[in-house]
Amino acid sequence: MAKKSTRNATRGQKNADRLDLMSVDPGLPTPLYHQIFSQLRDAIARGKFADNTFLPSEQELSAQFSVSRITAKRALDELAAAGLAIREQGRGTRVHSAPGRTVVRGRISGLVQSLHANARHSVKLIDFSYTLASAEVAANLGLNKGDEIQRAIRVWNGPNGPFSHLTTFVPGRLGRSWTRGDLLKKSMISLLERQGMRIGRAQEKITATLADRATAYRLAVKQGAPLLMIIRTVFDTQGAAIEHIVALYPPDRYQYLIDLD
Q1: The domain spanning residue 128 has which CATH number?
Q2: Mean pLDDT lowest for which of 5-14, 23-32, 54-63, 162-171?
Q3: Is residue 106 part of a domain?
Q4: How many structural domains is the chain composed of?
Q5: Do 66 and 170 fall into the same domain?
């Protein structure tokens, strides 16, 4: 019994340290539970909470963020629904999001988060620029050709090498709200949510392609090697496109699992 109490105390202190500097803002349009969810999701993505370790309890979250237990519970439930954690009765909420593995659990929240929540080890920002939308990107974002967009290219690195090459496009009016540094710390979805954007739906195409010279170098594969390609456009609750993303993965380092219920 004493050992169990000691373990719980140690876990509680570690969780308190990991929650340090996290907070919510009741003045934002984003619900409090979702603000907590977003911060925990990003902490998992950065490896702050390692795979198979336990997240803070409802009570700890309630105390840290000064919210009700119901709000804390909903935040943890959202993590489980997004495929990032497992709720274990009597034990707590355990992280379940290994690098190189994406799990989508049949909900739009899980789908939208899936391409963004993989920065378990390190991320390299290849490009951060404002440019003019091509005809293809403009069509996907509901813009006119030549409108300003923000383009970012990032490569996620895991224990077996680089496993994710993401090129994201957002309308320039949204992209002006964050910096290069923000993209090294947070997912694009988190940054959009910070601006009050709420996800309504997404369109996704899964196919395959061959690595060109630049992508092959960044992903440490041979030029012409096969890659999994996921192309997705995300829309807000009003039906406006807020992000277009092209994701490339070496199939030997990445799995995309869909759990529909």
Answers
A1: 3.40.1410.10
A2: 5-14
A3: no
A4: 2
A5: no
Structural domain of residue 43, as residue ranges? 2-97
147-182: per-residue pLDDT in tens? 999 999 999 887 778 988 999 999 999 988 888 988
Within this chain, do residues 61 and 121 fall inside the same structural domain, yes or no? no
CA atoms within 13 A on the CB side of 105: 13
Q: Is residue 103 part of a domain?
A: no
The better pLDDT of the pair 146, 111 is held by 146
